[in-house]
From TrEMBL:
Species in which this protein is naturally found: Nocardia vermiculata
MF-aspect GO terms: acyltransferase activity
Highest taxon listed in the record's lineage: Bacteria
Stretches assigned to the Thiolase C-terminal domain: 90-185
Name of this protein: Thiolase family protein
Family annotation (PANTHER family): ACETYL-COA C-ACETYLTRANSFERASE (PTHR42870), NON-SPECIFIC LIPID-TRANSFER PROTEIN-LIKE 2 (PTHR42870:SF1)
Pfam families: Thiolase_C_1
InterPro entries: Thiolase-like (IPR016039), Thiolase_C_2 (IPR055140)
Length: 202
């Protein structure tokens, strides 16, 4: 999608699964991306500025985990999934929390994922994300520029690679008219709880 979608145009789109309409689902698309991963020392010898994966967190998923709800709808009936109640990725990266993040790149296969990520990673309290993100807060120039290249919903669904490439561009100052001013820390995150913290080489 390269043109803005008005609220009126959105409401004209058919429901796929109520309350989600066609634009709430990432487009099927072909694409590719590549990130070269090496040591910071080796990266410093290359032509382009190094971007550092400061830390990451992942989790084992199982039958309790579902993208549209907390594990087991909040009820733990199995023992094969451990929900991360806190987000160690921030402390491991030397950050105090979500407030330190300059830009968020999130896995947005479906539009509600934005709400789930904002709440899961502490950008907002539980149940407050929809109100919080109003009035341009997640737009370029807002408090938390999010999916600045369009994300899966507007750019292409290539399983998060586009987000990581955009994080790299932002931290190198190579994002053109999408550039976040003073961008030093970018978080990639999913509603499941996986996350990477990218930083400039300091």
């Amino acid at each position: 999608m390269t043109t803005p979608l008005s609220a009126e145009d959105y409401r004209r789109q058919p429901y796929i699964v109520e309350p989600l309409r066609r634009p709430d689902f990432a487009l099927l698309s072909d694409g590719g991306g590549c990130l070269l991963v090496t040591t910071v020392e080796r990266a410093r010898d290359l032509r382009r500025p190094a971007v550092v994966v400061a830390r990451m967190q992942g989790l084992h998923t199982g039958r309790d985990e579902f993208i549209f709800a907390p594990p087991g709808l909040g009820v733990f009936s199995q023992n094969d999934t451990r929900r991360i109640e806190h987000n160690p990725v921030y402390a491991m990266a030397g950050l105090t929390g979500a407030d330190d993040v300059d830009s968020l790149q999130l896995y947005d296969a479906f539009s509600p994922n934005l709400v789930f990520v904002l709440e899961r990673f502490g950008f907002t309290a539980e149940g407050e994300a929809l109100d919080w993100l109003q009035n341009g807060r997640i737009g370029l120039g807002g408090e938390l520029p999010t999916n600045t290249a369009g994300g899966l919903l507007s750019e292409a669904h290539i399983c998060g690679w586009g987000h990581m490439i955009e994080a790299t561009r932002q931290l190198r100052g190579q994002a053109g008219d999408r550039q976040v001013d003073g961008c030093e820390i970018v978080q990639w995150a999913t509603p499941f709880g996986d996350s990477l913290i990218f930083t400039k080489d300091r």
